Amino acid sequence: MEASLQHRQVTSPTNEPAGVRWTLILAGLVYMALFIVLPVIAVFSEAFAQGWGAFFQSLQSPDAQSAIRLTLLVAAIAVPLNVVFGICASWAIAKFEFKGKAFLITLIDLPFSVSPVISGLVYVLLFGSGSVLGPWLRSYNIEILFAVPGIVLATIFVTFPFVARELIPLMQDQGSGDEEAAISLGASGWQTFWKVTLPNIKWGLLYGVLLCNARAMGEFGAVAVVSGKIRGQTTTMPLQVEMFYNEYQSTAAFALASMLALLALVTLVLKTALEWRFGDELAATGRGH
């Protein structure tokens, strides 16, 4: 029996020869270098090709400053709204049984399967001049398309699954035992949420916020459709990068693009730091890797 067990361990499919393991590792490293590392290096090298002075001068131009402010404003509106929606949706899906639950989950996943350009066109159909709502909104001087509200709506649509999708499986794994115990001890609904539910989901919530914020600040397709690309008014950072590049202002384009790349790197570093620092707690909540 012992010899049979030893034979099974030796022939385990996870005990590949060293050559196979190193080949797979090398292939993965080469793939990452070609499609991830080198493009990021190229962005930063082009951004600083003419020196630090040209880099900072590009970021201080009125168009770049306007794009940065608008991007931060849109993210500051869209991310908190998606946090509220994500918590409410995940709470309802994980803690209760109701008709239409599967349909709600499907709707949450919808932005993952629909092109961002299509989602932008949906808002054009809803609020455009030829729609039912368009003339009525204009009669009250309410601008949705080619204005900040349209950009915010498009950004919310493409980013709202991130928080919910992080929290739903987490809450489902945790069950409702802790909340039931808190309520049985006399805690109110809000006390149960703030003292029990929120501490249990805080790391999954932070993951969702990081991903949601990165996507909100980097969204291009949906925003390009609804913004109208009005210089200095409705151009976010990704749109302004395209405009700079099309106008042969390569230093300005790559300088602004480097800020978006830096955001992605910071998001990755924070995500990795959380996994390293709070690995045990993340594993305990079902979110650890």
Helix/strand/pairing category: mainly alpha
Radius of gyration: 24 Å
Proportion of residues in helical segments: over 70%
Q: Can you give the mean pLDDT? A: 84
Characterize the overall form: globular
Distance between the termini: 35 Å
Strand runs, count? 0
Low-pLDDT stretches: 285-289
> What is the oligomer described by this structure?
single chain
What's the tally of helices?
15
Largest sheet: none
Run of helices and strands: HHHHHHHHHHHHHHH
Strand content: under 5%
Structure, explained:
The protein is mainly alpha-helical and 289 residues long. Helix content is 79%, strand content 0%. It has helices spanning 2-10, 18-47, 52-59, 62-95, 101-113, 116-127, 133-139, 148-159, 161-174, 177-184, 189-218, 221-227, 237-246, 250-277, 279-284. Helix 4 packs antiparallel against helix 11 (189-218) and helix 11 packs antiparallel against helix 14 (250-277). The longest helix is centred in the first third of the chain and has 34 residues, at 62-95. The radius of gyration is 24 Å and the shape is globular. The chain starts with a helix and ends in a 5-residue tail after the last helix. Residues 285-289 have low confidence and may be disordered.
Brief account:
Helices cover 79% and strands 0% of the residues.
Q: Key features?
A:
single chain, 289 residues, mainly alpha, 15 helices, 79% helix, globular
Show the helix and strand layout.
Layout: H1 2-10, H2 18-47, H3 52-59, H4 62-95, H5 101-113, H6 116-127, H7 133-139, H8 148-159, H9 161-174, H10 177-184, H11 189-218, H12 221-227, H13 237-246, H14 250-277, H15 279-284
Helix pairs in contact: 2-14, 3-14, 4-8, 4-9, 4-11, 4-13, 6-8, 6-12, 8-11, 8-12, 9-11, 10-11, 11-14, 13-14
